[in-house]
Design brief:
Elements: H1 22-48, H2 58-62, H3 66-72, H4 84-88, H5 92-97, H6 113-123, H7 125-128, H8 135-138, H9 163-168, H10 172-177, E1 182-183, H11 214-218, E2 230-231, H12 233-238, E3 248-249, H13 260-265, E4 294-295
Antiparallel strand pairs: 1-3, 2-4
The structure holds heme C (10 copies).
One heme C binds near residues 278 and 300.
């Protein structure tokens, strides 16, 4: 096996249980085979050389890549010990033996995204395993678009930039929405993009990363989710974003329309006829239908 790669477990909150699907099992066997080849090769090399040259871990690499190795010693990946560099850099050992020869995986911009992502997913399959199926994976981003992997652990999650700046680098249009008067207080640091989006996860349907509708918003706005005796069918079917912009809006309360009556009449063509008087843009239906998110007292949300 790869020497030194005996992490207790990077699975959160539990012992190292092996719950492999058949597909994972096949990969595992393949990797095992790969490790054996590596180990046999390493043993052969070791017997052919004096002991001092045997160390082929970070120290071997440090001899020629001093800067990287120095920062790396305070990186969480250094916990893999001697074999840490080669855990990501396939072909690294041979490259070292040959005094800097070709064929080492270097995660170059020209490498295919799948090639760059695969070594990471060998260890990070639990939380990031579906990366390639998500919008970032499909757009051929790889992990290094956001993470800086050699760095001494300075920022949380080894991000290249501060959390919001990491996303802002590519999503300027979204950042502009957070400049509007009505907005979630991102700039003030009350929340980050990752509070609502998992940048590693696939989308389902029209929902943005991580799965939306009610649940996401209810993490912080639990009072809007009930359970109510009388639910408003609107958000049950469509989610909060049928009425609210999630990032920012020119309209009060992050509403999707300036006029509340337009918003309501968009779905309610059959309000009682005397409601005709409320068609003016300035009408606020919620001045009477005050418990618009749901109520235990009034079927029509009057209190
Ligand atoms: C967690 C995976 C990982 C580990 C562990 C790792 N690297 Fe890297 N390495 C990368 C990635 C990804 C790149 C591509 C450039 C980047 O994003 O920094 C890279 C690029 C490089 C490069 C070429 C580009 C440059 O910055 O000069 C060298 C040399 C290198 N690594 C050496 C090392 C050495 C030496 C170690 C051990 C001390 C090491 N790496 C450990 C992932 C890793
Ligand atoms: C005897 C010196 C030497 C040793 C030992 C060595 N390298 Fe290198 N390495 C080089 C040279 C020379 C280059 C090419 C010049 C450059 O770009 O820095 C290089 C380049 C690289 C690159 C970039 C390759 C590319 O195509 O851009 C990576 C990644 C790398 N080394 C990883 C490693 C790892 C991992 C180890 C330890 C297992 C290691 N090196 C050990 C000398 C060495
Ligand atoms: C040999 C297994 C292994 C490989 C390969 C590997 N990692 Fe890791 N990674 C770990 C371990 C173990 C940790 C520390 C986990 C912890 O502290 O929870 C870690 C930590 C991280 C963290 C920081 C997590 C945090 O909360 O600070 C990031 C980001 C990360 N890895 C990204 C990558 C990327 C990107 C690659 C591929 C270039 C990669 N890893 C390859 C095992 C690995
Ligand atoms: C689009 C940017 C982006 C890309 C691409 C990306 N990450 Fe992340 N990653 C993040 C952010 C942001 C966080 C912090 C999440 C948080 O604060 O909850 C993070 C957190 C992590 C963590 C820490 C543990 C966790 O789940 O919070 C690991 C490990 C990690 N990423 C690994 C990877 C790997 C492996 C890849 C490639 C398969 C990858 N990331 C690709 C942005 C990205
Ligand atoms: C290197 C550029 C880059 C970075 C950095 C980046 N993204 Fe993306 N993001 C993209 C691309 C490209 C797409 C797919 C094309 C598109 O929909 O715009 C995408 C798609 C998305 C989508 C889905 C969009 C949709 O229409 O469904 C969300 C949500 C998203 N990114 C959030 C984030 C978050 C959150 C971060 C920071 C953790 C981040 N991105 C960082 C480039 C990036
Ligand atoms: C309060 C939760 C929340 C926060 C914070 C948030 N988003 Fe979103 N985002 C959403 C929701 C919900 C959607 C889906 C909107 C829809 O389907 O109408 C979305 C959609 C998106 C989209 C695709 C559609 C579009 O508007 O372009 C991108 C890209 C995106 N978000 C990126 C980001 C970035 C980058 C940040 C941080 C700067 C961020 N989001 C912060 C909830 C949030
Ligand atoms: C991570 C926590 C968090 C999440 C998730 C979240 N919000 Fe918020 N939201 C807040 C906070 C905090 C405020 C109060 C901000 C302030 O006072 O400026 C707020 C305020 C609001 C407001 C009122 C704005 C105003 O003008 O008073 C609306 C509407 C809103 N959120 C809708 C949503 C929707 C819809 C979602 C899901 C897409 C969502 N929120 C997800 C934390 C969150
Ligand atoms: C049918 C449209 C509609 C839906 C669906 C909806 N809201 Fe609202 N929401 C409103 C209106 C209208 C207001 C403004 C009420 C007022 O002040 O007149 C509002 C106000 C708010 C406010 C700020 C004022 C307050 O009461 O705290 C928050 C926060 C909020 N909504 C969150 C949510 C969340 C979370 C969801 C999803 C569970 C959601 N809304 C679903 C229409 C809706
Ligand atoms: C996205 C569509 C949608 C929007 C926008 C919407 N509603 Fe509804 N509303 C519904 C649905 C669906 C029901 C449940 C109807 C049923 O069960 O027959 C409902 C139920 C109601 C009811 C209970 C009486 C009834 O007809 O069942 C009232 C009152 C009501 N809505 C008022 C409002 C007001 C006021 C607004 C604007 C703030 C609004 N609605 C916005 C879809 C919407
Ligand atoms: C002055 C208070 C008031 C305002 C403002 C108001 N409503 Fe009503 N609404 C009521 C009352 C009271 C009822 C129930 C009496 C009735 O059926 O005539 C009602 C009934 C309804 C119903 C039918 C519920 C049922 O019985 O199924 C709908 C839908 C509705 N309103 C939507 C709206 C919309 C949309 C607006 C804004 C354009 C609005 N209301 C503004 C007081 C108001």
């Amino acid at each position: 096996m790869k020497p030194g790669l005996n992490f207790p477990s990077i699975r959160k909150g539990g012992p190292a249980v092996n719950t492999r699907s058949p597909k994972e099992a096949i990969f595992f066997v393949l990797r095992l085979a790969g490790c054996l080849v590596l180990a046999v090769g390493a043993a052969a090399l070791a017997s052919a050389r004096p002991a001092s040259a045997v160390s082929r871990g970070t120290e071997t690499c440090a001899a020629c890549h001093e800067d990287i190795a120095a920062a790396f010693s305070r990186n969480p990946h250094a916990a893999a010990g001697e074999a840490a560099c080669a855990a990501c850099h396939a072909g690294g050992l041979k490259h070292a033996e040959e005094g800097g020869g070709p064929g080492v995986l270097a995660f170059k911009p020209s490498d295919h995204a799948m090639v760059k992502v695969r070594p990471c997913l060998e260890c990070h399959a639990d939380d990031q395993g579906r990366f390639s199926a998500g919008p970032h994976g499909r757009a051929a981003l790889d992990c290094t678009s956001c993470h800086s992997v050699h760095a001494a652990k300075a920022r949380p999650a080894l991000l290249k930039e501060k959390p919001i700046k990491t996303c802002a680098a590519c999503h300027q249009d979204v950042m502009a929405e957070f400049q509007l008067n009505e907005r979630h207080r991102l700039r003030e640091g009350i929340l980050t993009c990752a509070a609502c989006h998992d940048p590693h996860a696939p989308q389902s349907g029209s929902q943005a990363l991580g799965g939306f509708k009610q649940e996401l918003c209810l993490k912080c706005h639990a009072d809007k989710g009930g359970p109510f005796l009388y639910e408003h069918g609107a958000s049950r079917v469509e989610g909060c974003t049928v009425c609210h912009e999630p990032h920012g809006s020119v309209n009060r309360r992050l509403l999707t329309t300036q006029s509340v009556s337009n918003l309501c009449f968009g779905c309610h063509v059959l309000a009682p006829s005397w409601h005709g008087r409320f068609e003016a843009k300035s009408s606020n239906c919620t001045s009477c239908h005050a418990t618009i998110h749901g109520s235990n007292l009034s079927r029509i949300f009057l209190r």
